[in-house]
Amino acid sequence: MSLFLYIDHPTALHRLNPIVKVLGMLCFFVAAFVTQAPAAALPVAVAMCGLITAARAWRNVWRLRVLFVMVFIMTFIIWTLFFRGGVPFFSWGPLHVSTAALRFALGMAIKLDTFLGVGIVFLSTTKIEEFAYALTRVGMPYKLGFTMTLAFRLVPVFLDSAATVVQAQRCRGFNFDEGNLLQRMRRYVPVIVPVFMGALRRADGMAMALEARGFQANTQRSTFEHFTFRRSDALALLMAIAVAVAYVVLASLGYTSVPAV
Amino acid sequence: MSASDTAAIRLEHLSFTYADQAEPALRDISLAVGRGEMIAVMGATGAGKTTLAKCLNRSVPAFQPGRLSGEIHIFGQQLQDEGVADMAGIVGLVSQDFEAQLFATNVVQEVVFGMEQLGVAPAEMKRRAPQALAAVGLQGFEQRDPATLSGGEKQRLAIAATLALQPRIFVFDEPTTDLDPLGKLEIFAVLSALRRQGFTLIVIEHEIAAAEQADRLIVMNAGRIVCDDSAVKVLRRATFLQGHGVRPPDRSRIAEALRLSPPPTTFAETEAAIRARRGSVPVGEPAPSRQTPCRRDEAALIEATDISFGYDSAAAALKNVSLRLAAGEFVALIGQNGSGKTTLAKHLNGLLRPRSGRVTLSGTDLGALTMSSVAAEIGYVFQNPDHQIFAATVAEEIAFGPKNFGVAAGELTERIDDALEAVGIRGLEDADPFLLAKGQRQRLAVASILAMRPRFLILDEPTTGLDYDEQRRMMDLLARLHSQGMAVLIITHSPWVVAEYAERGVLMSGGRVLFDGSLRSLLAEEALLARAHFQAPEVTRLGRQFGFTPLSVEEFSRRLSAVKSSPTSRTQ
Fold first, then answer.
1. Backbone dihedral region of A149: left (phi > 0), alpha (psi from -120 to 50 degrees) or beta?
2. Neighbours of A219 (CB within 10 A)
3. Does residue B292 or residue A71 have the better pLDDT?
4. What is the tens place of the pLDDT at every residue in A22-79?
5. Which pLDDT band, with edges at 50, 70 and 90, does A110 fall under?
6. Are A214 and B57 in contact (CB under 8 A)?
7. Do residues B505 and B517 lie in contact, with contact meaning Cβ atoms separated by under 8 Å?
8. Is the Cβ–Cβ distance between B217 and B42 less than 8 Å?
């Protein structure tokens, strides 16, 4: 199992400066965030589909299809039922369904899937190291950025170790499906302790290996991947900013909201 | 230029005591290593080898504090208060645990990581990275995620990442311990390439192959250097090596047993020396002794029929495998990592369910049984004891299994006692399992399974990471259990363990069983073994030159001695 969504393709999106990718993603988040009406959310969603195609990342969307569908359906149902305002055409107890609620819910569902999709475009085209690089360039301390990279690498390792521990304890008759919640929590001790001890041991080994490779050396650090800021980066950034600004303006003029009537 | 300047490493009266220990880990070590020299270091667990390695890049005392005295000179410079990171471009340390040495999400990033820390210019990194990868044979792997590499590839990547920092001294701390035979060969090839390039190498290793490449072999015991001489000479001293917990080459034990002189130093020389000493050499197989043929005739205890399995939809880990295991057998399951050994073993106790085919226990389909009822019959000891140890005391750890089966208090005490006795850790009932030595933890893991009183014991690499004496103790324990009627199946990469202890051998490759039969017949299948990258013990290969298949040095020597005393007699 891999947690990484990065796909190594030579697309124009992959080649963008990581800072541009982060800022571009934020611009799309802003644009999606300020919209309510489905008609307003749709253009951003369409643009997102275009980006996924350009990034050749449909494979990842397919991998996470369940997530997309679940988010869409759950959002739609919840907002349909809990949207305050509009004239209900159906009521049942405290629940009211109005046309406005349906529109708002549809807008929200598109919006959240857009967040997901834009995130996937970013993760499909950006190596973790590039992400960390971009974050450090915009002011995050190096060690924090590096820790994040390491976390991405270690999560699968720990999941793997937890799976092995569960198997090892099952071989000793361990059964964790019995009892109430508290009993179950206590029952997990035979799993938690070995995983935790293993993590500590690994952290020890890693700290030593990290320093052996010069981590924390007092010299100035350099970066292997040299990211220039090219014309394509400027163009991409301008387009993304234009989209965000346009949406903020339209939203402030009230064009993207769902009127509560 | 003073004499000290010609040495890459010079240690003077180096002693070290860990802060939490009473006894010193290193006692008055003095040693000079010339530039471009390759030194092998051998010795039992606790001899001080790793401490010595860590002193050379300052991880000791930086990470494990303690009292250090004496001097360490690297290229004539005495180490003072350098940090580990300061040593990065000077002494490269590569350890056994390759998983803990990889931090990046692709191979190139891994190699440049250290260079970035040291502020190497990007142009220079672009030059060094491909060189380092080429030096360990990882060209073409640049964009791979390290997590997807094999063990040998991961360790080679760790070496490349260290190499890119251009240290002139490399220290390897058991670099091949966690690798399969092919992975070990890959690392030894890299070592010899580094040696040709003039690096100064210190290699701590249990495998003889490393010592055979070295100029000098140092044997350590209880913190002291007990021997420091040319590797060829030391390797001949079989009894001496065994006395210090080091497994000597088979040929040296043979040479000692048969009093060959001058002592041969290579396989070919040994063969020639034996031929020269006697006009006639034995031909044909000896009578079956301890080794019994596999018991196909008996009713199967566990039977896997035509099982297939895959972890993901793409690749099949097992392809139509069938295996019958009877009560009281001793089976070795061998093959490369990824050949399906562990996957097959996990099917035998129901941890994994086959995609197709069936597994039965005494005739009942495992699918119809609960995991715990199977666990009571078939004990499974995982490779790493740390994946199961969790309790506060040894006794509690052993009690966990039987308690899960509802064993009553009175019987529980008896079972704990028996298990402690069986694995030889009586007296440690109240000890904290986490503070035990690796060999003891491994035996505790076995004890905690034995307490469930299974009829069949499966062990995944029970000797990996143990020194020679601990390996012997573990295998003798299994042999004793076996003689009391326990059926045993071990997964292992260790040729001598297979040859000296198992009765039956199952060889796997690519998810299939390549061979299943008596061990002696398996070890005679040279072509098949080669295909699976498994090399029979040296003594067996030597015997094959004389037309028989000995399983131990004792058997080989006995047979040749018998021939010597009455040249005409033929063992039947």
1. alpha
2. 14
3. A71
4. 999 999 999 999 998 999 999 999 999 999 999 999 999 999 999 999 999 999 999 8
5. very high
6. no
7. yes
8. yes
Q: Does any domain span residue B277?
A: no
Q: Residues of B168-181 as b/e, b for ≥16 C-beta within 10 angstroms?
A: bbbbbbbbbbbbbb
B13 domain-assigned: yes
pLDDT confidence of residue B276 = 86
- Which residue range(s) make up the domain with B514? 329-351+371-519
Q: Measured between CA atoms, how close is B211 to chain A, in angstroms? A: 25
Q: Which residue type, as a one-letter code, is found at position B397? A: E
User: CA of B34: how far to CAs of B10, B15, B38, in Å?
Assistant: 9, 21, 9
Residue with tokens 């629940």: A95
Give the chain A residue whose CA is nearest to the CA of B452: A172
Instruction: Name the residue facing B117 among A129, A175, A215 (closest C-beta).
Output: A215
Q: Are residues B224 and B340 in the same domain?
A: no
All residues of chain B having their beta carbon less than 8 Å from the beta carbon of residue A4 are: 105, 145
B75 in contact with A, Cβ within 8 Å: no
Residues of A in contact with B396 (CB under 8 A): none
Query: In 10 A of CB B312, how many CB atoms?
Result: 8
pLDDT of B466 strictly over 90:
yes
Nearest chain B Cα to A178, which residue? B404
- Residue B431's pLDDT band, with cuts at 50, 70 and 90, is very high
A157/chain B closest Cα distance in angstroms? 9
Beta strands, E only, chain A: 88-92, 95-98
Are residues B384 and B235 part of one domain? no
The model's confidence at residue B569, banded by pLDDT at 50, 70 and 90, is very low
Q: Are A169 and A15 in contact (CB under 8 A)?
A: no
Q: Which residues in chain B are closer than 8 Å to A190, comparing Cβ atoms?
A: 388, 390, 400
* C-alpha–C-alpha distance, residues B442 and B464, integer Å: 10
Mean pLDDT for the stretch of residues B354-358: 95
Nearest CA in chain A to B113: A213
ipTM of model: 0.89
Q: Are residues B333 and B482 in the same domain?
A: yes
* Sequence ranges of the domains in chain A: 14-134+227-252, 140-212
Q: How many domains does one find in chain B? A: 2
**Is pLDDT at A133 greater than 80 in this prediction?**
yes
Instruction: Check whether B407 has a pLDDT greater than 80.
Output: yes
Strand-pair partners of B320: none
